[in-house]
Amino acid sequence: MSLSFLVLLTTGLVIAAYMSGIVRARASAGGNLAALHSRPTYYGAYVALISGLAALAVLTAWLIGENIVIQNAIRAALPEAVRSGPPAQVDLVLGQVINTAKSGSSFGAEPYVTELADKYNVMHSASRIWMTVAVLVVALAGALVGYLQIKPEARARNRVEAVIKVILIICSSVAVLTTVGIVISMLFESLRFFSMVPAQDFFFGLVWDPRFSSASGGETGQFGLIPVLWGTLFVTLLAMLV
To answer: What's the mean per-residue pLDDT of the chain?
Structure first.
């Protein structure tokens, strides 16, 4: 089963869990919705959250562990002559095996690469089957747990809002940490750049001719900012005129 179909099927289960939570909440109140602590939609959302988050946790953990386990198994099955070589060479052969497995083409590949590519496909297919079973079972189990907890006095609204608050905090934290990571990366790369190119040559240079010394006979490039800045302003001015 493909990953997209599994996500679609799990989404359908979560929606069914949501509807079943609403139905059970109405039934538990005996038709008197005023007896419920929260609106029926909160009970449905509570069941859906337990089902969806449990399935998402299993799916994420499985996808992360799948690559690690399969690649380690393929790495251990490599010929001794390859495994005893440099780590970069081992990674290169491992990448060749994975590419052969995904492309289905073994033209020009060593026999052991083709054999390991077939093993990779078998392990990957088996992993996806068990992943599908695990995700669906966990989604159903989570829905059942949430369904059985529905009672008129259950504080579904408080629980749902608490979970949503945690999700929003995690999302905002990821956005902030990503921004901080980008800034730190640019800072260190800028410091590395200016350790090789003087700041005055960069800010006041009139020639932009970047090149790598290893690919240009040992000659270093010129990194003048003014031509690049003028080109950007000139194109922007023309775009504004148009």
So the answer is: 89
